[in-house]
Amino acid sequence: MRSTVPRIGILLTILALILVACGGDGGASQEPGESTAATSEEPAASEDATGEVVEIRWFCCLGAGDDPAQVEVEQAVVDAFNESHPDIQVTLEVVEYEEAYDILAVQLNSPDPPDVVGPAGISGAAAFQGQWLDLQPLVDSTGYDLSQFAEGSVDFYRSDEFGLEGLPFAIFPSMLYYQRDMFDEADLEYPPHAYGDQYVLDGEEVTWNFETLRELALRLTVDENGNDATSADFDPEAIVQWGYEPQYQDLRAQGSYWGAGSLVAEDGTSAQIPDHWRDAWEWSYNGIWTDHFIMNEAQAQDPTIGATGNPFQSGNVAMALSHLWYTCCASAQDEDGNFVDDPNWDMAAVPENNGTVTSNFNADTFRILEASDHPEEAFEFLTYLLGDASGELLQLYGGLPGREEDQAAFFEGLDERWTQGVDWQVALDGIPFADNPSFEAWVPNYQEAFASIQAFWTDIRSTPDLDVGAEIDAFEQELQGIFDRAE
Amino acid sequence: MSIVELEDPPISRWESRFTLARREALWGYLFISPWIIGFLLLTLAPVIATFVFTFLNLRLNQQVPVRFVGIENYQALLEDPRAWEAMGVTLRFALIALPIGLVLPFALAMLLNSKSLRGSRFFQAMFFMPYIIPFVAALFAWGSMLNPEQGWLNGMLEWFGISGPDWLNDPSWIYPGLVVVGLWGIGSAIIINLAGLQNVPTELYDAAEVDGAGFWGRLRHVTVPMMSPVIFYSLVLGLVGVMQYFLVPLVLNSGTGRPAGTTYFANIYIYNTFFSFGNMSYGATLAWLLFVVILVLTLLLFWSARFWVYYAGEAK
C-alpha cells in the first residue's frame, strides 16, 4: 500500500498531460473578449433550439463586397433586417475575395455551414457546383413573384440538373472603356458606342473589330519622345502611354470577346482550347511583346506605371475591355475619396471578331447553400437582399439591376459619381451579345483549373520570346491533367 | 543482549515479477508515455494517414464515395508540370538563400566573438531581438518596408542616388527581396555560431599563430574545421527550412506565385492543393514528394559529412 498513492498520482498526472496535449489550444489561446462573447451568445443559442430566434450566417464575398466601405453598408443592411425581423438574426461574415473560396470550402464541411452566400459571381457559383439549394420549392411555397425580373433572366440560373439555384440580382455587361483626351490628342475618332456601327479611321469607314482596335492601340501607344508605336523611331523601352489593357480579364474572358467558348469539351472531361481563343491569346501576346501596346507584367504591377495591376486607372492606358463593375475603380482616388484627376473616360462597344460580337458578362447574386439548416429563414433574408436592400447594394457593387424597373435609378446614381457624362446605354446595348456558354462556366476541378489559367496569363505577360503556340498546346495538356484529377 | 530480527518488507506481486532494472525501465516508459502517445496520435498517425490518402480520391468537399485509386495520384504527379515547376522554384531559391543564411550568421558571430568588439552582449541582444518578434507581424512590416514607393529600404537607397527596385513584384528582384526578409530571423543562427566559436580551444589559435598563420590561415585551418559540426547542423536545418519555405510568400504574395510564378514554392502548391483546390489526396501526394526530396538531400548531406565535418575526439 505504501506506494499506491504516489503511483495513482503519477498516473493521473500522465492522464492530465495527455489530455492537455491532445486537447488543442482552443482554450489556451482564447481571448477574454471571446470568452465573454461566447457566454453572451448562449441564451440566443437556446432560443434557437426552441425556435424563437433563428440565426442565419451571411458569408460574403465570392464576388464584390469585401471592400471596407462596402462592408459598412452591408452591415447596415443586416442591422436593418435584424431590426425588422426579431425572429431571425443575421450575422455578416466578410472574407476577402482572395481567401473566400478556400474558407468557404472548409466551412462547407463544418457542422454549422453558412446559410446565404454572396454576392457570388458565375465563377464562385461554378466552384461550388451542386451545393446550392434549389430555390424553386421555396419560390412556390412563398408565392415569390418571378415576373418582376426581365424575361429569360431567371432561366439563366435554372438547370435540369440542379434546379433554380439563384435569382437575378446584378449583371455586369462588358464594354470598352476609353480615355477621351488620349483620342483627342492622337486626333482619332472615338470608338463607336452603338453595336454594329463602323469606325472612321483616317476618313474611311472600317469594321469595328480587333484588327481596328489593334491599329488604334498602336497609334495610342507613345514613347517619351512622343513617337507612337507605328513610328520607326518608336522606343519600346521608353513607353509612357499604352494603347490597350484587358483590364482584370483572365484568359477565358479575353478569349470570349473573340467568341463564346469553353475550356472543356461537351463530354465534360476533355480539355480544349477553342481556335478563336487561341487567336485571342496570341493577339494579346503579340500586343505585349511585339506591338508593345499592352503592358507587360512588371509594368502592370509597377505602382507608378500600372497602378499595381490596375493599368487603366493609372491614366497611362487609352483603352480597356472590362465590365460594368469596373466603374468601381476606373479613376484613381485619394485617401478622402476625391479623384486625383478629373475622370474623362467613356464607354464604347466591344469590337467584333469575324462578324460576331460577344460582350461577355459577369453576374452576381446571392445563393443559399443546400447544407443550410434554415432554408426558409435564409430565403426570407435572400429576398430582402434582392428586394428592399437591393437599391443600396447595387449602387455599392456597381451592378446593373436584374429588375428592369430599377435600372434608370441605378444609372442616375452612377451619374452622380461620374459627372463627365458616360454613355451608359452602351452597357444596356451589350446585354444581347452576352457569351453563351459563359466564359466562367463550370469546368472539372474548377479551382485548380482557374489557378492554372491565372498562372498561364502571368507567364504570357511575363515572358518575352515565347513560342506562344507551343505554350498554348502545353497549357492544354496541363489543363487535361487537372481535369483528370477531378472526381 | 538480544538480537532483534528485522522483518523483510513484504514483496509485492509487481516486485516479484520484474527485476529492478525492468521495473526502472517500465517507470521510465511510463514517464515518457505522454510524449509517446502524443507522438503516435499527433505526428505518426497523420503521417501514416497522409500516405494512405495518396491512394484514395479524398477531397475536402467530398461529393463522390471515397475509393481506392491505386497509384493514380503518383501518375498524375509525374505528368503535372506545376509540381515540378514548384520544386524547381524551391531549389532555385534554396541555392540563393542557403549560402547567405549560412555565411552571414557565421561572419556576424565571428565579429561578435572578436576580442576588440566592445559591447558584444548588447549586439548579441540586438541581433537576437527580431527573432522573438512574431514573424507574421514582422512580415507585414517588411511588406511596407519593401514597398517601392513608400518603403524605407528604397528611401535609404535614394539617399545614395539609387532608384530602388520593386522588390516584391519584379521577378528579377523577388529572391533578393525574400532573402533580405529572411535575414530578420538570423539571430538564433548567430547565437548558435557564437556558442560554437567560443568552444574552439584558444590553444589551437596560439599554435597556428606560432606557425605563422594569419587571419585567413586561422580561419581556414582552425575555425572552419572546428566549427564544421555547427556548420553542418545549420546546413541541415537550413536545408529543411528552405525546402519547406511557406510563410513569407503566403503573407507577402498571398500564395499566388506572383510575380511570374517566382514565389510558387513547393509548399505553396501543396497548401493550395489541399485548401484551395480541396484535393486532399493529391495534396498528400505532393507532400510526400517534398518529403522524399528533403530526405534524399538530407541523406546526401549526412553522407558528405564524413568528408568535411570534424568531430574532436571522434575515433576514426
| Secondary structural class of chain B | mainly alpha
Mean of residue pLDDT values of chain A: 88
Number of strands of chain B: 0
Q: Roughly what is the average pLDDT of chain B, rounded to an integer?
A: 90
Identify low-pLDDT runs of chain B: none
Radius of gyration of chain B: 27 Å
Query: For this entry, what is the oligomeric state of its chains?
Result: heterodimer
| Gross geometry of chain B | flat
Helical residue percent band of chain A: 40-55%
Low-confidence stretches of chain A: 19-48
Helical content band of chain B: 55-70%
Can you count the beta strands of chain A?
Answer: 16
Beta content of chain B comes to under 5%
The 3D shape of chain A can be described as globular
Could you tell me which chain pair has the largest interface and how many residues each side has? A-B, 42 and 43 residues
How big a fraction of the residues of chain A is strand? 15-25%
Distance between the termini of chain B: 66 Å
Largest sheet of chain A: 10 strands, mixed
**Count of runs of 4 or more consecutive helical residues of chain A:** 18
Let me know the largest β-sheet of chain B. none
First and last CA, distance of chain A: 63 Å
Task: Describe the protein's architecture and organization.
The complex is a heterodimer of chains A (487) and B (316). Chain A has helices at 4-22, 26-29, 32-50, 68-84, 97-108, 122-127, 136-142, 180-185, 210-220, 251-256, 275-289, 297-301, 375-386, 390-397, 407-417, 425-430, 446-462, 468-484, and strands at 54-60, 88-94, 116-120, 158-159, 163-164, 170-179, 199-201, 204-206, 222-223, 239-246, 317-323, 345-348, 352-353, 356-357, 361-368, 400-401. Chain A is of the alpha+beta class and 487 residues long. In chain A, a hairpin with a 2-residue loop joins strand 13 and strand 14 (356-357). In chain A, strands 1, 2, 3, 6, 9, 10, 11, 12, 15 and 16 form a ten-stranded mixed β-sheet that branches. Chain A has a two-stranded antiparallel sheet with strand order 4-5. Chain B is mostly helical and 316 residues long. Chain B is built from 14 helices and no strands. Chain B has helices at 13-17, 20-53, 72-78, 81-112, 120-128, 135-145, 152-159, 174-182, 187-198, 202-210, 215-243, 247-252, 266-276, 280-308. In chain B, helix 4 crosses helix 9 and helix 4 runs antiparallel to helix 11 (215-243). The longest helix of chain B has 34 residues, at 20-53. In chain B, 28% of the residues are buried. The model of chain B has no long low-confidence stretch (mean pLDDT 90). The interface between A and B is large, with 42 and 43 residues.
